[in-house]
Hints:
The protein is an alpha/beta fold. The protein folds into two domains: 7-203 and 374-385, Rossmann fold, CATH 3.40.50; 217-371, Rossmann fold. It is built from 15 helices and 14 strands. It has helices at 7-10, 31-35, 45-59, 99-114, 126-138, 162-173, 183-193, 231-240, 257-268, 281-290, 305-312, 326-329, 339-351, 353-370, 373-385; strands spanning 22-26, 63-68, 76-79, 82-86, 118-122, 141-145, 177-180, 198-199, 217-222, 246-249, 273-277, 291-296, 317-319, 333-335. The strands form two sheets. Strands 3-4-2-1-5-6-7-8 form an eight-stranded mixed β-sheet, with helices on both faces. The protein has a six-stranded parallel β-sheet with strand order 11-10-9-12-13-14, sandwiched between helices. Strand 9 (217-222), helix 8 and strand 10 form a beta-alpha-beta unit. The longest helix is centred in the last third of the chain and has 18 residues, at 353-370. The two termini are 27 Å apart.
Amino acid sequence: MEVGVSVEARNGVAEKPAAVRKICIVGLDDYALLSGEPQGRTIGGETVQRVLLARAWRDLGVQVSVIVHSAPQGTRREIDGITTIAAHGRDDGVPMLRFVHPRMTRLLGALIAADADVYYQSCAGVHTGLTSWFCRSAGKRFVYRVASDVDCLPGRQLIKFWRDRKLFEYGLRRADLVAAQTAHQAKLLMEHYCVGSSVVNLAVDMPERESRAHKDIDVLWVSNLQPVKRPELALELARRMPDVRFTLAGGPMPHFQAYYEDVLEAAARLKNVTVAGLVRYADIGSYFDRARVFLNTSSVEGFPNTFLQSWARGVPVVSFFDPDGLVQKRQLGWTANSLEDMREAIAGLFADEARREEAGKRARAFARAEFTPSAVAGRYLELLSAYEQPRLRFGTTG
């Protein structure tokens, strides 16, 4: 898909593209995964993507910094050649006032301290607008990465306040590069926001060799336990398939502790269900190695990281959701329209082991060919090389 024409080119003030030497990632939740220290809370798919990109860009010779929440690590820290810059604490400041200080002021301070050529931010929210405004003011390039289909739908974004939604839309419309996960997202962005975008693959950690782990998990479900992920549907499938072993892995999300406990209570009544709880990212690969099938029951997705983690380990997926029709077109698993469809798909896979293994082989080959971190990071650099270097715009209101 063609990249949309930049704001600077439309205004006739474009300069020759500049090489990317320094990239700053706005990833306030990324410190635990980047450092390998105890995470303490659920890690989302976009955190995984940002950290994989940070390491891949570093390996390609780019200086990489990541803006994170402040914590005992101090203002700046080097982690395997990547600099973390602390902005503000997760709960710092006085309610109603903290939007301005410390959140806005310290984020802007961290953006200035990074002194990067390119700033990368993902997930729809207030940080999209603030990062975009800073980049336009300081003559930097801004990349916005779509994280979910709802990011592309006005009023559907997972943003609480009207103010923050408007800041997000400001940033989206002024990004130098908008990276969509799928062609479907690119179409939605053009339809609803008249914003051009490029489809850029996600990245996945590829295992060095094929696992020989014993397949003692029939159906694996991995996600944050929140209503939009619908773990209760996985439990209903387990009720309908009492001879199939289900494992659910994932921790609670903020504000959904009661929901999480309800899911645990329901799962405890099913003898064929194991709930692993919150699993460290470094350890989750072993669960995929042990799985025969991966199950996705979400009502909203973009391009699930868990699909890539499954495919990288030769595990076919069964899902309601199919990004750009890849699951069906490339025969990487099975899609369903109902729970009964899911039950039949899983039963069919277990009845024909050769069919399941062939789907797994196709999935592994596809992941290796399309989703390695170095290839994805290189694609961003290629796209950025085609973009004009913005002029300084201090004081801009546009």
